[in-house]
Design brief:
Radius of gyration: 28 Å
Structural class: mainly alpha
Order of helices and strands: EEEHEEHHHHHHH
Number of strands: 5
Largest sheet: 3 strands, antiparallel
Length: about 280
Amino acid sequence: MAWCPNCKTEYKEGITVCSDCGAELVESLETEERCSILSGEEDQIELLKKFLEYNDIMSCVITQMPEGDAYTYELSVSKEDEELSKRAAVVFLRETASKENAADADSSMDGQNEEAEMPEDKASAKQTKSFVKAEEKAENFKSSAYALTIVGAVGLVAMILIMIGIIPLHFASNVKLIAYIVLDLMFVIFIVMGVHSMITAKKYAGEANMENSKTAEILEWFAATYKADAIDQLTEGMEGEEELNYFKRTEVMKHLILEQYPGLDDAYLEHLIDELYQGIFEA
């Protein structure tokens, strides 16, 4: 059976849209934490939904909400898809604005198709990988190093005890030598991998000190230089929709940071923006 998430009305199978409010039906009314990504006109929100689904974000739901004599449409996703959806939506809005500006500038092409086109840059939304701190990488490699080294060492000791007969484990005579060689080699490889992981962990531990220092420097500089009012003054087209304002503010913040600190990694920059935005606008 299908249900309307707004009216809580049950429908027969095969019906996909609520006849009362126009919302897309869902399979159940189980409570699920959802995050609003963008509100706007139906055409824009439908295009955004297609764009997110094109980027393998399949938890999109459009909700129709009354606003005076008209309706506004809100797109929401599951909590786990929130971060990727917001980044994809930034790409969508940027691509859409770019296409609209190009269409306005090229007034000589009267016969061109004016129908909005779904942004095609699937890779752009997916190329921004989640940022992982260097100290977290160091801890992960250190844990792997300990695990691999311990398993390898214990395995080698066990093999020695087996070979001298203390541990009674017998192999067929025709495979005994091969079994000893293969198992010994496997445990040696574990130890080598453990040593390599420890070396990598120390490398990331050194990078973590520089990364933490750089992060603190950038956050301190930005917080001291730009307050919420100053960022809003530099942001064009501020609207009532907080989701739209979020995208516009973060673009301005990225530009300001890159002017002062050019060449920052995209994922690292996204991490800085998230921390700054929470401290400035959500504190």
